[in-house]
Amino acid sequence: MAGGSEAVTPEEVFDGDPVALAIHDEIRRTLLLLDGVRGRVSRSQVGFRRDRAFAMLWCPGRYVASDVLSVALPRALQSARVKQVVHPSAGTWMNHLELRDVADVDDEVRGWLVEAWAAATVTGHSKVERPASSRATGTRKGEHDT
Questions:
Q1: pLDDT for position 34
Q2: What helix, strand, coil percent values describe the chain, rounded to 5?
Q3: So what's the pLDDT on residue 130?
Q4: Which among 60, 59, 89 has a CA at the least distance from the CA of 72?
Q5: Are the C-beta atoms of residues 97 and 76 closer than 8 Å to each other?
Q6: pLDDT given at position 137
Q7: Among 95, 101, 63, which Cα is nearest to 79's?
Q8: How far apart are CA 78 and CA 131, in angstroms?
Q9: In 10 A of CB 131, how many CB atoms?
């Protein structure tokens, strides 16, 4: 990558791991049902954002034998499925879940994703929604409308 200018795709992030790519695809299908979701792909993860990032899927590789879905919520989840919770800023808890199979993206996980999406809006002012035809022009480098 010369200067990081080449686009990275989810297929490249999860290269060699068809289960990870299938998990990504299932999460993406869930999020396509929600308004204003954009994806952002980097070399190590695929992130999903609304006004701010609310979910990231990544493969820790040698550290953990699963994919990790990080879900930003205004609360810590109380579930045995959550492997770690960090509190990076006031009002935000990052809940890390290990996903080993597409079946792990079930109604409970989908519910947490929808909750995170709902919380990922700028508070304190009204935001005018742009028409769908102009949304793509508002994406930043490395982002795409999902």
A1: 95
A2: 30, 30, 45
A3: 33
A4: 89
A5: no
A6: 32
A7: 95
A8: 38
A9: 6
Task: Flag residues of the chain having pLDDT under 70.
Answer: 1-6, 62-63, 123-146
Give the C-alpha separation, 132 to 116, whole Å.
Answer: 22
Dihedral over Cα of 73, 142, 133, 110: its sign:
negative
> Would you kindly state where each structural domain of the chain is located, as residue ranges?
8-102
- Name the H helices within 3-62: 10-13, 18-32
Q: What angle do CA 10, 98, 67 make, to 5 degrees?
A: 25
- Measured CA to CA, the distance from residue 99 to residue 82 in angstroms comes to 10
Angstrom distance (rounded) from CA 126 to CA 124: 7
- Residues 118, 122, 128, 132: is their CA dihedral positive or negative? negative
pTM of the model: 0.76
Residue listed under structure tokens 């952002």: 40
Q: Which 3 state secondary structure label does DSSP give 7?
A: coil
